[in-house]
């Protein structure tokens, strides 16, 4: 199986290239943005653009930047090449482009390809369904390294979406992020977000349900971002034989 990596010179791109080889798959190569200052790793084939990479790959793995995701969606659908998408910070228009692509190719999209968070997402949905929103205030707290450009993290949004799904509401209707100044009291049923940035924290996420007489908190800490790459390569191997559709890491792990 041939796996290609867009943005192969990025933090995740480099780890993905290593994990493709470590997993026993063929690294078809990668692309890197002109002027990014990030080099294609030694020994990997550099392709000039996504169509050229897609033509040489059975699956393309994408941990890049939200600005380029909609373009990648159209290009990979046109090339009929499966897509593993880890890029976060997507807009509603980007999400729509991903869904369109999934009508003609297999797409595995996850805000976090680690196995622990995949299970935490399933647990967040169960807790959201079991704990009434009238009594239990749901808050998502996350911390990441100082270089991270989007907030709340894609994983935090995914956890909020899981709680919302458990509660039978749309996250967009109850999301409360970036509180500042005179916010007024907490809105009933809101799902709150707080984002901390600093140091080199790979990723910490807590889902908190706070009632008057008890708190339940589930915390996941990632110590090495390599596990995201290992999970994404596992997803790539899984996606290669799947019919068109939008899948998650829970589908790959069989816990959905
Ligand atoms: P990075 O900045 O180190 O790498 C980004 C790569 O994308 C580079 O190769 C860059 O050249 C390329 N790129 C292409 N177009 C770009 C554009 N318009 N602007 C900026 N870069 C562009 O970032 P990273 O730490 O490797 O993270 C990349 C993405 O992966 C982010 O969205 C991050 O949140 C996400 N991520 C997801 C998971 C997951 O499990 N889903 C885990 C870690 C990171």
Our measurement of the CA-to-CA distance between the termini, rounded to an integer number of angstroms, reads 25 Å
* Percentage of residues in helical conformation: 25-40%
Mean pLDDT: 96
Kindly state the number of beta strands: 11
Number of helices: 9
CATH class of the largest domain: Alpha Beta
Strand arrangement, largest sheet? 2-1-3-4-5-11
Task: Give the topology string: H per helix, E per strand.
Answer: EHEHEHEHEHEHHEEEEHEH
Instruction: Tell me the domain tally.
Output: 2
Share of β-strand residues: 15-25%
The biggest sheet, with number of strands, parallel, antiparallel or mixed sense and barrel status, is: 6 strands, parallel
Instruction: Briefly note the structural class of the backbone.
Output: alpha/beta
Bound molecules: nicotinamide-adenine-dinucleotide
Rg for CA atoms? 19 Å
Oligomer: single chain
**Parts with pLDDT < 50 across at least 5 consecutive residues:** none
CATH architecture of the largest domain: 3-Layer(aba) Sandwich
Provide the CATH topology of the largest domain.
Answer: Rossmann fold
Describe this structure in words.
Helices cover 37% and strands 23% of the residues. The chain is of the alpha/beta class. It has 2 domains: 141 residues, NAD(P)-binding Rossmann-like Domain (Rossmann fold), CATH 3.40.50; 108 residues, Dihydrodipicolinate Reductase, domain 2. The strands form 2 sheets. Strands 2-1-3-4-5-11 form a 6-stranded parallel β-sheet, sandwiched between helices. Strands 7-8-6-9-10 form a 5-stranded mixed β-sheet. β3, α3 and β4 form a beta-alpha-beta unit. α3 packs parallel to α4 and α5 runs parallel beside α6. The chain is elongated, with a radius of gyration of 19 Å. The mean pLDDT is 96. Bound molecules: nicotinamide-adenine-dinucleotide. The site of nicotinamide-adenine-dinucleotide has 26 residues, from α1 and α3.
């Amino acid at each position: 199986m041939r796996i290609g990596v867009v943005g192969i010179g990025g933090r995740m791109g480099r780890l993905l290239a290593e994990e493709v080889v470590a997993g026993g798959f063929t690294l078809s190569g990668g692309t890197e943005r002109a002027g990014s200052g990030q080099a294609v790793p030694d020994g990997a084939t550099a392709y000039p653009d996504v169509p050229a990479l897609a033509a040489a790959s059975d699956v393309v793995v994408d941990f890049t930047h939200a600005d380029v995701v909609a373009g990648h969606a159209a290009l990979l659908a046109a090339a009929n090449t499966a897509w593993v998408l880890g890029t976060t910070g997507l807009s509603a228009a980007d999400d729509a482009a991903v869904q369109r692509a999934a009508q003609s190719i297999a797409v595995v999209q996850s805000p976090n390809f680690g196995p622990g968070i995949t299970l935490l997402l399933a647990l967040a949905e169960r807790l959201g369904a079991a704990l009434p929103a009238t009594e239990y205030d749901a808050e998502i707290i996350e911390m990441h390294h100082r270089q991270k450009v989007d907030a709340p993290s894609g994983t935090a949004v995914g956890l909020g979406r899981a709680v919302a799904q458990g509660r039978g509401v749309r996250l967009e209707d109850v999301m409360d992020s970036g509180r500042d100044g005179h916010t007024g009291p907490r809105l009933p049923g809101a799902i709150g977000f707080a984002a901390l940035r600093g140091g080199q924290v790979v990723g910490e996420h807590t889902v908190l349900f706070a009632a008057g007489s008890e708190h339940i908190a589930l915390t996941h800490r990632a110590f090495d971002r390599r596990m995201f790459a290992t999970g994404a390569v596992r997803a790539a191997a899984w996606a290669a034989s799947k019919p068109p559709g939008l899948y998650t890491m829970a589908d790959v792990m069989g816990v959905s």
